Amino acid sequence: MTQQELLDQLETDLRAVLAVVRENFVGMPPEALRQRQNPESWNALECVAHLNRYTDDYIPRLHRAIHLAKARRWAPGNAVRYTARGRRLLRRADAAAGKTYKTAKRYNFLNLPLEKEVLKAFIINCEQLLRILQEARKVDLNRPTVRKANAWFGRYTLGNILEFIVLHNKRHTAQAMAILRPA
Fold first, then answer.
1. Which of 16, 74, 93, 103 could bridge to 108 as Cys pair (CB 3.0-4.6 Å)?
2. Number of domains within the chain
3. Are 179 and 43 in contact (CB under 8 A)?
4. What is the CATH number of the domain that holds 173?
C-alpha cells in the first residue's frame, strides 16, 4: 500500500468514527451512555475516555515527528513499511482478531465519574487527528519515529502509529456502539 493510499484510508475511517460519535452518542442522555453490559465491562463514556487519553498522549508526539520530518526535508515516499513492533501494535488494535487485552491503569476509566464533556474532547481530538493526517501527506511516513507513550524505550514509525490510533478508535467506538445497542 502506498503512503497516500494509507492516509486516504485512515482519513475515511476517522471521519466514519467521528460521524458515529456525533450521530449516536452526542444526543443520548448521560444515563444511557453510562449503562454497562456487566459490572466489569466499560460503558460508552469509559471507552471514549480511554481513547481520549491515548490521543492526548500521542498528538504532541505526532506534531513533533511531522515537524522534524519537514525540517529534515523527508519527502513522501512510496510504500508503507511496517516494523515488527508496528505489526504487533496493529494486531493488538485490530478488532477482527477478537482478542482482548488488559488495559494499563493509566488508560482504564472503569467506574470513574464521567460526563458528556468526554464526547466533546473526543470530537476535538478527532479533528486534530484529521489535521495531522493532512500534514502527514507532506512527509515520508517511514522515516520519522514516535516514542512510545509512557515508556522509556520503544519507537514506532509515523505511519505505524497513525494507523494504530485510527484502528484503536474504530475498535473502541464499535465496542461502545455494541454496549448501546446489544445484539
1. 103
2. 1
3. yes
4. 1.20.120.450
